[in-house]
Amino acid sequence: MSSPLLSIEYLNVTFKTSKGPLKANEGISLEIREGETLGLIGETGCGKTTLGKAILRLLSGNAKIEGKIVYRDTDLLSLPEKKMRLFRGKEIGIMFQNPSACLNPVLSTGRQIAEIYRYHEGVGKKEAEEKAGEMLELVGINSLRGHDYPHQFSGGMLQRVMVAIGLALRPGLLIADEPTKGLDTDTKVQIAELIDGLIRRENASMLLITHDLELAGSFVDRIAVMYAGEIVEVGKAAEVISNPKHPYTLDLLHSLPGKGFRTVSGQAPGLLSLPQGCRYHPRCSFRLEVCSQVHPALRGFCDEHLTRCFLSEMGRRKETAPRSSLTEQSAPSYVEEEA
Amino acid sequence: TDKETEGTAEGAESGEGSQDLVVGVGTDVNSWYLDMFASGDARFVWAQVYETLVRLDSDLNVIPGLAESWESSDDGKTWIFHLRENVTFHDGTPFNADSVVFSYSNQSYVRQAVLRPVQSVEALDDHTVQFVLAKPMPLPFYLTHVAWPVMGPSCLDAEGNFVKPVGTGPFEFESQAKDQEIVLTKNEAYWGEKPLLDKVTFKVIPEAATRVIALETGEVDMIIKVPEYDVARLEAEEGIRIHRKLTTFTDFLQFNCEKSPFDDTRVRQSVAYTIDTETLVNEVLEGIGEPAGGRAYSPVMMYSDPDLETYTPDLDKAKALLEEAGWKDADGDGIAEKDGEPLHVTLVVSKGVWAARHNPMAQVVQGALKEIGMDVEIQVLDDGAISKLESAGDFDMILRSGYFVWGPYPRHFFVHHSGNPYSHYNNETYDQLVDEADMTLDSQEQEELYHSLQVFVIDEVPAFYLVHEEKIVATGPAVNGYVISSEDPWLNLSGVYLERT
Amino acid sequence: MTDLIERTVRTEKAYLAEKRLSFGEFRKNRLAVSGILLITVLCVLALFAPNLAPHDPLAQRLDSRLLSPSLEYPFGTDELGRCIFSRVIYGTRISLGIGLLVVAVTSIAGTSLGLLSGYRGGMLDEAIMRGVDIVMAFPNIILALVIAGLMGPGFSSVVLALVFTQWPAYARLVRGQVLSLRKRAFVEAARALRPSSFYIMRKHILPNCMDPVIVLGTLEIAHVIIFASALSFLGLGIQPPVPEWGSMLKAGIPYLFTAPHLTFFPGLMIIFTVFAFNFAGDGLRERLGQPADQEVLAR
Amino acid sequence: MKLLKVEDLKKYYYSGLFKKEVHKAVDGVSFELERGETLGLVGKSGCGKSTLGRTVLRLLEPTSGRVLFEGQDISGFKGSALKNLGIRMQIIFQNSESCLNPRMKVYEAIAEPLRLHRLCERDEEKGRVQELIEAVSLSEELLFRYPRELSGGQLQRIAIARVLGMKPEFIVADEPTSMLDPLVQAQILSLLKSLQENYGISFLFISHDMEVVKWMSDEIAVMEEGKIIDFR
Amino acid sequence: MWKYIAKRLAMVSVVIAGVTLVAFSAMYLAPGDPAEVIALARYGDDLSASQIETLSDAEGLDAPVHMQYLIWMGHLLRLDFGKSLVTSEDVLTEILQKLPATAELAIVSLLVSLLIALPTGVLGALRKNTLLDSGCMFVSLVGVSVPNFWLGLLLIWLFALTLHLFPSFGYGGLEHFVLPALTLGSSMAAVTARLTRASLLEVLGQDYILAARARGFDERTVLFRHALKNALLPVITFAGMQFGYLLGGAVIVESIFSWPGIGKLLVDSIFARDFSMVQGCVLFIAVLFSLSSLVVDILYAVLDPRIRYDRSD
Ligand SMILES: Nc1ncnc2c1ncn2[C@@H]1O[C@H](COP(=O)(O)OP(=O)(O)OP(=O)(O)O)[C@@H](O)[C@H]1O
Ligand SMILES: Nc1ncnc2c1ncn2[C@@H]1O[C@H](COP(=O)(O)OP(=O)(O)OP(=O)(O)O)[C@@H](O)[C@H]1O
Ligand SMILES: [Mg+2]
Ligand SMILES: [Mg+2]
């Protein structure tokens, strides 16, 4: 495949919190190649959004970023803020996860899109508004509603406005943070195809953060799986989906609604109190002795497919394993005691 | 001196500089008509436009004005004024007896207030007017007051509404912009010594500090009512001249003699012995003014007793007097008591135009009286509040200035006359003396009476007189020929001319 | 890619970012701390004025008027020869007292009314806001005159007059904030819990609209102190010769150019007070439950 | 008696500063809900689902129509009756990311309804909050953070925990799991379901994921342009 | 909105009635017999009791207060503002003469204040916790602590006397506006600047600003197109109130700079118990004030579309 458009090396993101430093990303190394779509999946709160924001250096003030993020030969982390700006929007676009907070409540949605054209393409007000209207139509919103303000939009519509904004400039790299959440199936497919189509046409790349594994399966070239701040598995999409190497990925795939909502007991560790050894080991049904002591490294399994698991390293992997299913799971403890 | 003025006047005329004088005053003219008092600095403007029958020279000598001469009947109840001829008002109408009758008709507020004894004003012929009074009264002195001048009847329209000021003065009214400026122009037909100025503009600048700066920047040529504390600074400035003159105004501390503690003469005397009026002048008023030491009459006034024995501070005597009156500091807290009541008095000061002078003066008085164990509480109030306190008798002392002082005539003694609702002093002897003095025609007798009145005030202290005020005018480099006079209006512009460089 | 050692590469930039952050943090705390320190100093001045003042603040020495600062009179003497230093110290009691009391009462009252008005809306809003209009259009001086007439001069009448005239500013300011806050999603979410509207105002709206109130309050202190002295000329305020910064300033105006220390030191005290309360106010604002990362970006 | 009965409910939005524009977001919706039942609500984005949910709870004043809760028209409720209604009917908002007071820590956000309705003793509060946050599979360490220090999914679960703490009888769940990964989603959904089984909670369950809706619901209503066009 | 505006305009009369009523009764409550105080202002110190009585009769001052107020109101309804009790001048003429000077100064001062405050506040927020921010804060805090009378004289001294740049007093051309407007503007600017800063900081911390940055906008665009509008609410509120204050309360500055404005007229009239003049001034101030607060309220809705006044939800 082609050369890397973006390469992330040993990225660490630490948030300063009142209870100590919180490593939301730890030792992340990833590549996104030209024309490639990389899917990023993982447990909520594992640091996906943080990674996406870190690329554009949009993290809040209590974050400390270490490592290297190179975009087309430029180390983004060592750029002065002024230069960094040149990469945002035009080169690297981002669609945020929380549309209701990311749209300015006092500006009409149309204007918020038009603004982008006016600023970046220097077009006149009229033309910018037209283009904004087109963009809205593209995501399935009547262009007349461009006059409306965000609070007059439904959740899904806001989500689509975010998509329109992210696509407005046809960036070389798009970071899409759950772009299709909250959309009905038809719209979702339509939006996904729209994004995918644009990306492919422009030979752009995309980092697609999503919880929708089906979507990931059908639109993504490679998949990275995150757990508790680190990458636990990377590989070709088809490979990862059909042949997951990390127990977490496996559990994730098994929990899909179509497969009957099977869950894993336990919960992701708080990032302030990570378990020793492998971060997934308390929940892992393939747990080995070593897992609770040594932190596994991300290793090549076969070419292009890396995983952070001793099991795969040793090549000892059981095909199926007993898994707690819904019926087995007990109701949460508090339910038992009557108020 | 005549020659001198002529010489300089010629010089002024030949100079190319304009003769437009700009004067900074504190308040605007709110009224041009005689149904109201020309309050504030309006009198300075009136004095240029209007004239009185009788005038004062700069040393307060009575001289003819629009009346060339006057005489009274023996009983002093009838006064006949012979008017100047060939005088015209600014609008060309002739000045005659009718205009005098018009000006002192019942309509004029002065007839209702001060000239209440006047029963009728009649024109005997075109240039003779007769005033008939209910009781003898030295009318010419009263008629020197600039706020009660002669106006032309043509200042009213047919319906009796006031249209515009019509006077006989050296300048005529041209225009007025409310609270900004008043413009007067030279009256070419003036009967007396023709003004050398072509135009006088009065700029209204309420704040004294701004007025001073305006003079310094040259935006105005002349300012009145210069604060005492600016005098030294201005004097040092090149080109600026300070004109000072002792006036009839006297600051005094009026007592409420109708209630304790000041119903006791000894307490009042004790105050008089405590306050050092010389310090007041030197330390509060920058040495400007003359310490009064209790003297009611400014030395510039008629019948002011030059040999009057005034108070000199004597703390021991003051304390002794207080003690005699029963006030003694028994508990050692610095405040005297009588029957367990501490000696606590209020001193009312008006927040009005005099505040800048009176506030520090009041504080010095307060500080001084503390020495003899009198605890003074100062109340700075607006006139409404003061009038309320006065009518309720709810005060102990009031600091006042130049109350009822017009002209050289010692009318001021009415202040303590029991007939005056504001006097708060009730003494038959005093009332008798005042009435007699006012009605006596014989000047010898008058002088004696007034002298004894002054002694009476020193002895009985219905009020303690503090400072005879000096008025201050400052002129810029261009102004020449200005002579300040002792009494309202001290802004005589005759002989003033400009020489701008 | 065979051996990925978990090592961090610190870029220069990140290092800088860290440094900047800690500086900001330090500065923030330093401000709050110094604010509280300054306020303490003022309180000490007020409480221990008799012990701290070298002279009797009322004692006149007419032979030593308008002296420049010296060892004996650290701030010089005023137009009646009183020790300005002592007067300024004593003045703390009244000026600070009036300032604090008025600002406290008005900001609380104004804020409450503004909250009610903005949150409840409708007739109540209309009534309160028109009340605000009336009070603001109503000339303060008349009020001062009336209060002076009815209550006589003194501390409480000044406070009363100032409170009456100053509350509307807070009310209007808060109302504006509330109008837009009440439509925020989190307020709607809180409303879904069906608490009393008082609860929502207190818990959800108030903390989010305190910023302007704190700003206004901490700055108003200066206005209040100055305004209080303006009232003393109507027989309402503290009467001379009681030392009070505003009146001292005013009394010094005639000597603005010849003896500037008369106005300088009381003025300095007002500035000092404003600084003290502003620092503390800024600290309070940061404390008010604002997330730590108010900073915009990690640069 | 039906727990909830909605009769011809309408909600029109009026907008525009100077000229009036009307938007008929909910336009005559009627449905009924039994205790312990779940009504799934699906429909294209923008068809009025959230509006319906909020109007049913009277968080938006309906333009017309009635909502009967246990046979009582809730539009007349005031004071303590309304307050009581708050414990019984609740909503999990769709935009959970902006539904928490930015100046309240997570702990307070979860404890708020408990305190407000005195659902537990003061000294039990801490324990309850911990249970709740664990019930939604979150770690305790989040309790002392501000909302903006959390991820989208975490916020959403806190919004859920907040509502569950009140044990309401009826919950409008507006896409409660849209930001959750499948694993956590499964955990949360099964939690909801088990609660329903234990306590007979009724849900109006809005979602786009047909699988999820089918799994959760007894009946599914399909909405289009403000109207329910089909019950399945 | 039109309905709302109409309603508010109708409310103006309520405000007028309220303010004038309160002012009228307060004037009566103020110490001193009104007739006496008026007589003092009219005739000076030489007063006779009969004069006071005549005046009281002539002006109807002996009628009960509420009657007097009703009579005044009755005249007002016929648009008759009456004559000054002290100078007999027509109240309306006098006010209309003074109002322009006041309004002009108010507008210019407000502009000056905003011109100083907005950049200062914005800079302070953008460069938060830097030396520049501290500098802005220092200047603001000093600005707010300095009383108008002090600053006014200092400016006159500096610009009129020392530098000869501007006239020291008077009303007239643009040059006359500089010093008074600077005096008034700078003291108000301090609060506005701090408000702007605080409010902007709050906004800059919001996610939508982050999102705007993510679109690659430069600071200027982020600031002016995205943040400022949101942050302006308290600033507008405050500016509106200051405009009101300037209309009625700039007495000190008016008198320092000899500005023929309505503030001084009002205060002088109050001290002279010139009821009709006071009522006239108060009425005009109330109208202007109500209008300015209406404008502010409309601006709210324009700035923030979520704010609506005809609440149907
Ligand atoms: N500003 C912050 N301060 C402290 N902690 C933070 C901050 N932002 C995020 N976190 C924590 O960092 C972790 C990663 O957050 P992030 O938003 O990247 O998660 P995510 O993978 O996007 O999750 P989701 O799928 O729920 O959106 C979370 O545990 C969150 O609590
Ligand atoms: N406050 C409002 N003012 C005007 N129109 C509004 C308002 N809120 C929502 N709408 C409009 O009402 C319609 C229904 O919105 P609603 O939020 O109920 O949709 P929804 O079915 O929940 O959609 P989604 O699945 O996208 O969340 C939308 O077209 C929306 O634009
Ligand atoms: Mg996320
Ligand atoms: Mg919705």
Question: What can you see in these coordinates?
Answer:
The complex is a heteropentamer of chains A (339), B (501), C (299), D (232) and E (313). Chain A is built from 12 helices and 12 strands. Chain A is of the alpha/beta class and 339 residues long. In chain A, helix 7 links the parallel strand 7 and strand 8 (205-209). In chain A, helix 4 (109-120) crosses helix 5 and helix 5 (125-138) packs across helix 6 (155-167). The longest helix of chain A has 17 residues, at 185-201. Chain A is globular, with a radius of gyration of 21 Å. The relative contact order of chain A is 0.13. Chain B is an alpha+beta fold and 501 residues long. The longest helix of chain B has 18 residues, at 443-460. Chain B has helices at 2-14, 42-49, 97-103, 109-112, 139-142, 208-217, 228-235, 265-274, 277-284, 315-324, 355-371, 383-392, 428-439, 443-460; strands at 20-25, 54-56, 62-64, 67-72, 78-83, 118-125, 128-133, 171-177, 181-186, 199-204, 222-224, 241-255, 290-291, 337-338, 341-342, 344-350, 375-381, 397-401, 463-475, 479-480, 497-498. In chain D, the strands form 2 sheets. A 6-stranded mixed sheet of chain D has the order 6-7-8-3-9-10, sandwiched between helices. The model of chain D has no long low-confidence stretch (mean pLDDT 88). In chain D, helix 6 (182-199) links the parallel strand 7 (170-174) and strand 8. With 232 residues, chain D is of the alpha/beta class. Chain D contains 7 helices and 10 strands. Chain E is mainly alpha-helical. Chain E has 2 domains: 1-78, no CATH class; 91-308, Orthogonal Bundle (MetI-like fold). Helix content of chain E is 77%, strand content 0%. Chain E contains 13 helices and no strands. Chain E has helices spanning 2-29, 34-43, 49-58, 65-77, 91-126, 131-145, 148-162, 174-204, 207-214, 219-249, 251-256, 262-271, 275-303. Chain E is globular. The two termini of chain E are 15 Å apart. The mean pLDDT of chain E is 87. Classes of the chains: A alpha/beta (339), B alpha+beta (501), C mainly alpha (299), D alpha/beta (232), E mainly alpha (313). The structure holds adenosine-5'-triphosphate (2 copies) and magnesium ion (2 copies). Chain E: It is a multi-pass membrane protein. Chain E: Belongs to the binding-protein-dependent transport system permease family. OppBC subfamily. Chain E: Its main location: membrane.
